[in-house]
Amino acid sequence: MAAIKGIVGAENVLEAYEDRYCYTYDASAVTAGREGTPALVVYPGSAAEVSALLVLANAHKIPVIPRGAGSNVSGGSIPRAGAMVMVLTRMNRIVIIDRRNMIAEAEAGVITADFQAEVEKLGLFYPPDPASKAFSTLGGNVAECAGGPRGAKYGVTRDYVLGLEAVLPTGEIVKTGARTMKCVAGYDLTRLITGSEGTLAVVTKVIVKLLPLPEAKKTLLAVFADMDRAAETVSQVFMAGVVPTTLELLDNIYIRNIEEYVHIGLPVDAEAVLLIEVDGDPAVLDKQAGIIARICREQGATEVKVARDAKEADELWVARRAAFAAMSRVRPTVIGEDCTVPRDRIPEMVRAIRAIAAKYDIIIAVLGHAGDGNLHATILTDERDREEMARVEQAAAEIFTATLAMDGTLTGEHGIGLVKKKYLPLEMGEGGMMAMRAIKRALDPNNILNPDLI
Fold first, then answer.
1. Residue whose C-alpha is closest to residue 368's, from 330, 405, 342, 332
2. Domain chopping of the chain, boundaries
3. 34: DSSP letter
4. What are phi and psi of 9, to 5 degrees?
5. Which helix or strand (DSSP H or E) is residue 206 part of?
6. Measuring CA to CA, which residue among 85, 57, 23, 48 is closest to residue 204?
7. What digits encode the pLDDT tens for the residues 247-263?
């Protein structure tokens, strides 16, 4: 303990049981690990301190759990008993925003929304927008390869990461990528580390590319009496040549609970709504919105509303971001999966989710970043009810099986974590698992860095 305090300072080490217990959970419904607490919690302030801590941990075979804000929903920062939790929030400096080259460099603990706000002051744009962006960190976003509603047009975190400063499990500080738009020198370690969920390296700095800030945006709400027609509309919009910034699908369970929670006038009798946004040149937004509105009506929308101003549009997005909080009013445990299928399979996947919910007599609400096929099958349950949780587990397994049968993936943005690790071989196959294990062994021979994940 004295050596650790010597590295980061005594004021940056938590030893009291009450403090350590606060780090036994994250935003997931995972309970594994809560029967034991980490041995200590440390707050390093630099890559050099992270390196020294990892060298020490390797020497003593201490498991290390990197952590940002703990906002992930896949159990990615649940520690085992006796582990060292390494919290990176002290490293919260924006190093540079380079307007000329449209890039930025920031430390891992910078809050995503704060970073976006600083970038936008200069007329630039960082698109990744996880629902947790008001408190999640850039380092955590990189570790999980976070997505968000804007993924339909702009992609996910990996599409913007140009380079990293990271510390390998054995303590070596590495720099990957470059401050250039193109870099093909050596293996693509940037992409290997991005999305590796803290199992291969501790990210300390991030270099990201930026875009020009869109001049304007327009938000629409399309109301449907039939879920199938709403789901089918998603593909029809893209087939018409329009690429919306976001295209969100919410079912009646979500609609009712969000409206009861935030009171903004959502149609509580609707079977489904699509929340759609387009951005870009103001001269073409009306045309794009008109095409989308026409397609929605042709697909059976009973009403299509266009937000009259920025305030009304912001209210709709505040409501959308409150979705998971609103659902906690129904049952105490909210399990948000993120199965992702090709866009044209969305209607089929929604039907499968509903059939599985009926089969196991559980509540599953459907919300999705439908523009990129990412559906959040949201299971509402109570983890204290063991009999119901057994049915939940069976239902989740069938959802995953159905997803893969439709050429989809187990996770579009949340990561595997503890939640889905036993299902990963179904997607990767034994050969894929063997390759990943070989990489893990090569970089982390003592298996100290997030050893329970993936």
1. 342
2. 2-87, 94-212, 216-325, 331-405
3. T
4. 95, 140
5. strand 202-209
6. 48
7. 999 999 999 999 999 88
Spell out the alpha helix ranges (H) of 278-363: 282-298, 310-321, 323-327, 346-359
pLDDT tens per residue, range 173-190:
999 999 999 999 999 999
Nearest one of 376, 140, 418, 413 to 251, comparing CA atoms: 376
Percent of the chain scored above 70 by pLDDT? 99
Confidence of residue 391 (pLDDT cuts 50, 70, 90): very high
Rounded average pLDDT over 155-174: 97
Place of tokens 């026409």: 294
Phi-psi region of 253 (alpha: psi -120 to 50; beta: other; left: phi over 0): alpha
Question: C-alpha dihedral over 292, 294, 298, 302, to 10 degrees?
Answer: 90
Fold (CATH) for 216-325: Alpha-Beta Plaits (3.30.70)
Q: Give the closest residue to 383 by CA, choosing from 333, 446, 452, 426.
A: 333
User: What would the two tokens of residue 191 be?
Assistant: 């992409």
DSSP state of 35: T
* Residue whose structure tokens are 């940056």: 12
Rounded Cα–Cα distance for residues 412 and 158 (Å): 12
- CATH class assigned to 94-212: alpha beta
Q: Within 13 Å of residue 119, how many CA atoms lie on the same side as its CB?
A: 28
**CATH T-level topology, domain 331-405:** Alpha-Beta Plaits (3.30.70)
CA–CA distance, 219 with 276 (Å, rounded to integer): 6
Which pTM value belongs to this model? Answer: 0.93
CA separation (Å) from 119 to 23, 62, 112, 309, 425?
31, 38, 11, 23, 40
349 near 356, Cβ under 8 Å? no
Tokens of 72: 């992930």
Whether residue 267 contacts residue 256, with contact meaning beta carbons closer than 8 Å, is answered with no
